[in-house]
Design brief:
alpha/beta, Diaminopimelate Epimerase, Chain A, domain 1, TIM Barrel, Urease, subunit C, domain 1, 28% helix, 3 domains, 6-stranded mixed β-sheet, 21% strand
């Protein structure tokens, strides 16, 4: 047997491998697990060249994978003021006023992570924070990634003075007189203002990307399914890998938009097999709707405000044809579908298109799901990729911007993680960062608790949908691997599999959900390389 590069001894190891569920030691070489067992058996294959790591106090699980994350878009979008803890207009004005004082009103003020709740009394308007920033242009992104708000100065810089037509279901929201309120729905509208902002240098962007990847490692993540790819992303991934800065495995799909022509899509088909050691393509990504809070999710029946009637693609049949094109070329298809109408249409499109052997199409988010469509995931072999921590803004009195749009019987069809698992579907978990924090401890805690970790006084949201500790961990490990047809090489700790490991200060299967959210990460190993160590 080859001599290991590294070996961890004396740890508590949850392998998730049914042939050997637990162990005390693991050895790796050239990015592959060589041996799993007790200290004596693993030590016996080591020599003086092996880096021996004392695993005392470590609880090791298979490397954690976030199955829905926007690494590059997220790194760019989280530059500026963090507004994720702002819940009122008064708080928003205070934060923006402090930023204005810090910058002395020079340049632009930007922010991210904004919630809808501050604007519930007035609607989303840029003039609600005019007094805090004067004539300084301001652009703020909401946590959902589908909505932005700009003040009048920013709209003027961008030349936005009225409604426009877009090829996707985007909108410059205007008042009765045709004047923009500042609310911008979906990328095409938001880009009008974002494109008017000062452009960062390539070096600045690269540093943002590297910093974001390192933070992923600090949280215990060894892999991500990226959701914001273009053909140019592959050049960036090659650059990161060549420089030694790609310290996380990454699957990067190609995003197809309503304005993408079929000729442009066909030109991407040869990119199916683009890959490096730690990254690959082979996935096509689609948006078929928006989000509940802004009324842009596609619903079987309109919500209580009469919204949710339309898909993101003005011609949904074009989406169906695009799915057929990519599926026929052997791509996995991944569709953002929040509303139950969008989920149904995506399932229909997948059923019509079929999939190559070993490829599982997937639907992202699934925040509303009918009883009729729930069993179709297992029947069609479609993966449910979900983010329970998107419920972080839900209030017990249903007054938040999401729950207030539905009557009780429809609220009972919300984030049906437990129902999907019981139906036999594959359930992958993730964060959708920057929409929500990428920390997998927080993601697993939400899946288990169905409430904010650290707040036991809050009632769980649909408690029968809670996951067990093992199910939550599987959502970030074995199910994540199954989602992308890599179950034979990852997701477990076993000889011959990838040497991707996450070490905690205690066993995540044996601590409660509130404790899990703050459980220290001691070490992250990717491809046999220690990319994060708490004591460094």
């Amino acid at each position: 047997m080859p001599v290991p590069d590294i070996a961890i001894l004396g740890a508590e190891i949850e392998t998730l491998d049914p042939d050997q569920p637990s162990a005390r030691a693991v050895a790796c070489r050239d990015g592959v697990i060589l041996a799993v067992g007790d200290d004596a058996s693993v030590r016996s294959i080591c020599d003086g060249s092996t880096e021996l790591i004392d695993g005392t106090g470590m609880a090791i699980v298979p490397g954690l994978t976030d199955s829905h994350l926007h690494p590059f878009w997220g790194a760019e979008a989280t530059q500026g003021v963090d507004l994720s803890d702002v819940w009122t207009i008064a708080e928003l004005n205070a934060v923006l006023a402090a930023e204005w004082e810090r910058t002395r009103g020079e340049g632009w003020i930007t922010g991210w992570g904004l919630h809808f709740e501050p604007f519930l009394p007035t609607g989303i308007r840029g003039d609600t924070f005019a007094d805090a920033v004067g004539s300084t242009p301001v652009y703020l992104g909401f946590f959902d990634g589908h909505t932005g708000v700009a003040n009048q100065a920013a709209l003027e810089r961008a030349g936005v003075d009225g409604p426009r037509e877009f090829s996707e279901a985007a909108a410059i929201v205007c008042d009765a007189d045709g004047r923009p309120t500042g609310e911008l729905q979906e990328s095409s509208a938001m880009d009008l203002v974002r494109d008017a902002m000062p452009e960062p240098t390539d070096a600045e962007r690269y540093r943002w990307y590297v910093d974001a990847i390192r933070e992923l490692n600090r949280s215990g993540l060894t892999g991500i399914h990226g959701m914001d790819g273009t053909p140019e992303s592959y050049d960036l991934l090659r650059q990161l890998e060549a420089a030694g800065d790609l310290t996380v495995r990454m699957i990067m799909p190609l995003w197809q938009r309503p304005e993408t022509t079929f000729d442009e899509m066909r030109a991407q088909l040869p990119l199916r097999f683009e890959a490096g050691r730690r990254w690959r393509g082979g996935v096509a990504k689609f948006f078929i709707d928006g989000v509940i809070e802004s009324g842009t999710a596609w619903l079987v029946e309109p919500d209580l405000k009469g919204e949710g009637r339309h898909p993101f693609w003005p011609d949904p049949e074009k989406y169906r044809e695009a799915v057929r094109l990519f599926a026929g070329a052997g791509f996995q298809c991944s569709t953002h579908a929040v509303g139950d109408g969008a989920v149904r249409y995506a399932l229909d499109a997948y059923e019509a298109a079929g999939a190559a052997d070993g490829i599982r199409h997937r639907i992202e988010h699934i925040e509303q799901l009918t009883d009729v469509d729930l069993p179709r995931f297992a029947q069609l072999g479609v993966v449910a990729s979900m983010q329970p921590l998107h419920m972080h803004a839900f209030e017990p009195d249903f007054s938040d911007g999401w729950q207030s749009r539905f009557e009780p019987e429809r609220l009972a069809k919300t984030f049906r993680t437990g129902d999907l698992l019981r139906s036999g579907a594959t359930l992958a978990l993730g964060s959708d960062w920057m929409v929500a924090p990428f920390d997998p401890r927080l993601g697993m805690a939400w899946a288990r608790l169905r409430r904010r970790p650290g707040h036991p006084e809050r009632p769980p949201i649909l408690p029968d949908q809670r996951l067990t500790a093992l199910q939550a961990l599987q959502g970030y490990t074995t199910s994540a691997a199954l989602t992308v047809s890599e179950e034979a090489i990852s997701g477990r700790i076993a000889p011959g599999l990838r040497a991707d490991l996450t070490a905690f200060a205690a066993n995540p299967l044996r601590v409660d959900g509130d404790t899990l959210a703050g459980l220290p990460v001691l070490m992250t190993v990717v491809d046999g390389e220690i990319v994060y160590r708490a004591d460094d």
